[in-house]
Model the fold of this input.
Amino acid sequence: MMEKSERIFNTYFKLIFVDDAMNQLEPTGIKKLEEANYSYGKAWRYQIEGIKGVYEVVQWDIQRSLLKINLPNLPVVEFSGPVFLLKYYPDPEEEVFEDFSVKEQILRLSAHFNYGKSPYPVLNSEEELDPTLFNIGIFYIVADDVLGIVRLGAYTQDRFISISQDGINLSNVLVVPPGGIDRNVPGWALTWNFLEKMAETYKKIMGKPYAAIGGVGKGKIWKCAQEKCFEEETESIRLKLFEIIFLASREERVLAVVDDQLESLTSNSSLSDLKTSFLWIDGKIKKDEDEEYTQLKDFLKK
Done:
């Protein structure tokens, strides 16, 4: 008998985004590329129309009922349901390429990517990259396959900043001074580009979303020295969690469950470090603070 997490994975991710059983990926602007098997999880790669880089979605232990991720360059998050690491491999010609760390840029032009000719890693799992590299956030699918409720969300920061305490030298050339910024990746922007396309796919299959919610909190920077990184909380960077809820039907019992879930989210009982800054239910904005979710609002207007 399949575990609930396996059913959700098969129904709401695998059938649509791996098998393309609904034939909606290409019309939405998503091109599925090769798959990969890492020691820490299976991965799927996607090209988004109009974007040069490649996204990689890494399954992160869907069998666990409660997951806590704490990796360098990622926020800590704890909740239930299938969770995926979201990575972005920038094209060397993209402006965002230089926002990635020196190590990531070097690797992107190394044998791991066929010296820049491959848009994603080409080596086998014995030579796999560190799972903390190229990360831009976490996304999740929490679903009730009986009631037909799908909650698609992501957890990221507006910027992922790493500071090199020692500085970085390449061939006796100082490329990052001591205390300088080594990584300054626009996590929210890159994550939204991918999640928007996923949401558009669900919209084609399930109809317009019923609700959307956005939370914000203090972000973190990572100060690294001698291969070790330490987190430091800061108000200058925004931690973001946003979620879009789709319903297969608007039956009274379904709406009652969703309203309870929204109440739980807005009470901050599960993520106490975030406050609700945006809430949209059935076509109406219930809360909108700080202008944090402009792109999400634009999507909901479509």
Observations:
- The helical segments are 4-18, 25-28, 102-108, 187-206, 252-266, 294-301.
